[in-house]
Amino acid sequence: MGWYSDQVVPRVLVAMMRGREYQQLRARTLAGLHGEVLEIGFGAGLNVPFYPDRVTRVQAVDPAAIGRKLAAKRLAASPVPVEFAGTDAQQLPAGDQSVDSVLSTWTLCSIPDPGRALAEVRRVLRPGGALYFIEHGLSPDPGVARTQRRLTPLQRAVAGGCHLDRPVGQLLTAAGLELTRLQTYYASGPRAQAYTFEGVATRS
Fold first, then answer.
1. Distance between CA atoms of 85 and 5, rounded to whole angstroms?
2. pLDDT band at residue 1, thresholds of 50, 70 and 90?
3. Which residue in 34, 87, 130, 167 has the most C-beta neighbors within 10 A?
4. 133 contacts 160 by C-beta, under 8 angstroms
């Protein structure tokens, strides 16, 4: 990662994504987490205050080193132990079928190969384990989708590789995950950036 992606983008994301709506969405998305959790895109630890009591440990994966510094206060206040376990969601540090839950919040947009990352998610989940996710991605509205495709090159350049136009539901099912809950909607903000996929996908 370059200096801009490693040092600037994480700080900007913290400023943008800690408001009340994001807090409500995080609380709802994380409610089902339990046991041994692997979180991809840990970032500055904005999810830490919302880990349920049933979570016993979290393995954190994120490419930006600054995240650990930005997360320090949240980690100090959390009863859930967090271990920084890796930097690449495309090559997860956990063993086969070794975690109960995987968490991804606004992360799949910036992974270079999301299909490879989701195959890794399926690999590390125990049978019956689940991926809990909230992501932005490709809108079914043709006009919005055209705008998303047009703006994605700029978005990638200024937002750490973020894509606006990834078909999140299709990526999940193509990786062999079964969508057991899926809500799609426009969150607050410009429609090209706000089409949201929220739900649970299990390892079948």
1. 20
2. low
3. 130
4. no
Give residue for tokens 């490879």: 116
DSSP alpha helices (H): ranges in 71-141?
72-76, 114-124
Where would I find the H helices in the chain?
3, 9-16, 20-30, 66-70, 72-76, 114-124, 142-158, 168-174, 191-194
pLDDT bracket for residue 3 (50, 70, 90): low
Q: Left if phi > 0, otherwise alpha if psi is -120 to 50, otherwise beta: which for 123?
A: alpha
* C-alpha to C-alpha distance for 192 and 112, rounded to whole angstroms: 20
Q: Which amino acid is at 70?
A: L
SS3 167: coil
Asked whether the beta carbons of 102 and 94 are under 8 A apart, the reply is no
- In sequence order, the 6+-apart residues with CB closer than 8 A to the CB of 150 are none
| Percent above pLDDT 90 for the chain | 83
